[in-house]
Design a protein that fits this description.
Elements lengths: L7 H13 L7 H14 L3 H5 L4 E5 L5 E7 L6 E8 L18 H10 L6 H9 L2 E3 L3 H21 L4 E7 L7 H17 L2 E7 L13 E4 L1 E2 L1 E3 L1 E6 L14 H12 L8 E2 L2 E2 L4 E7 L11 E10 L4 H30 L9 E4 H12 L1 H12 L6 H14 L7 E6 L7 E2 L4 H18 L3 E4 L19 H7 L12 H6 L4 E3 L4 E2 L7 E3 H21 L3
Amino acid sequence: MTGLWGTPEQLRQLTEQLVGWESQGLTEGEVKFPERLKAKLMEMEYFRHHPELVSMGEVNWERRYLTALYKHEKATRTVVLLSHFDTVAVHEYGDLAPLAYQPAELEKAFQKIKSEFKPEMQEDLASGDYLFGRGIMDMKSGLAIHMALIERASLENWPVNIVLMSVPDEEVNSAGMRYGVSKLLDLERQHGLEYVLFLNGEPVFAKSPGDESQYIYTGSIGKIMPSALFYGKETHAGEPLAGMTSSYLSTYLTRKMEWNPAFSETVHGEETPLPVTLTQGDMKEEYSVQTPYRTKSLYNVFTMERNAEDVMDIFEGLAKASAAECMEDYRALCEKVGMEPRFDDIRVLRYEELVDYAEEKFGIDYINQLIHDTLMDPERDVRDKSFHIADILLLNCQELTPGIVLLFAPPYYPAVNSSEDPFIEECVAHVTRDALERFDLELEQVHFFNGISDLSYVNYQDTSSGWVSYENNTPVYGDPYSIPFQAMQQLKAPVLNIGPFGKDPHKRTERLHIKNAFEEIPEIIASLILHIGEQGD
């Protein structure tokens, strides 16, 4: 029996339909998508007879995740299929933006302007081997494959349980997965499941331009954003050394952060990308000849084994060294022009230290009210709110300035890796052998998925104080942004990512390889899940 999505052509049609359901992050389409997805799954014979096994859960801002459970009456071993349905925006499509969700029409439009593209894209366009569209690679195709797999399992009575979970917001803050962790624990308890594998369906990400190798991933890289609020000393532009611009102060730390190998990690022969600055700018809102005295910087750091406390320790050391260098240069300038320095040093504080100081000065009620008022501001996102809270505290504790306040800004993706797990080693051997024998397809193991994924929120291994440092130094930590670290520790199964091959995620030339997505990868994953089920309980 082929069911609804059992043939390559049916799977292709499903994928194009999912792409057609526009679901950009923070749009009405993202809100409506899980309702449409539920209705689609309810067309399956299995879920028509077991509607209670498909459900939606609340996230935030009216967004919801969806879970669907195929349950074999004699099995406890369970594979969890993870995907996200939100996409990035379509601004780069320009005039073709209305076609970004219509793969057939978009391809026709591309054919008319093919001379605009690079040779590789022109070749792929002419080959007929690819489908184009926003989200078709990242990652509506992965979701479609999972839907076809759970249907096939139900029709063929596979001796294993399968949970399908698809979430919103992966592209922004991963709220969908963070909220979904508790649902996975509830399903495990309610149905007596034993999670043995968290299998994500993110697509293959090229390691470098032109890379056409196909990978499977036994982990996912971590991402954290150490950030700094720089508070100088305001002055008139005509008396520059009577103060210190926060812009000047910030350059010392940014120079030490950018591309700094101190943050590099090498694990299983793979190395983290170097840190870069994501945001830097003063917080002055109007023009005047008063010098800028508040600047914010947000840095991107990738991790493999380090936790939040490890990163903060390195960050703090660099901040103290940069403050000392800045102060030394300031004193030298003052001496050169024959004036006394107007301040003695530049303080470096962690956000938690600033909070302790402000609490002693003003009381806890003041801090709680400040945080509450900031969190209620609908015009700010969680990163703006983080800086705003630290800014107000420091504005009212100017005796600590000039200074640098160190904090974390969301989101945080803890690294996860299962490469040394014997079960994963067996899965990798099975998948690579099966792909080669059946499709002459070489799949190469990569230890860390380099595109960042929701696998970061399962199988959390850190048992030290790493997460405490994150909680204490993230100003918005709580209702607007939190990570269920302890619940994540309970989702102990190893992780794996197997997805289809494509190119140019987040670009207007985003495209999906047709044969790989609709013929090869579905069969390879099906073989793996059946193999897991046949191992028995």
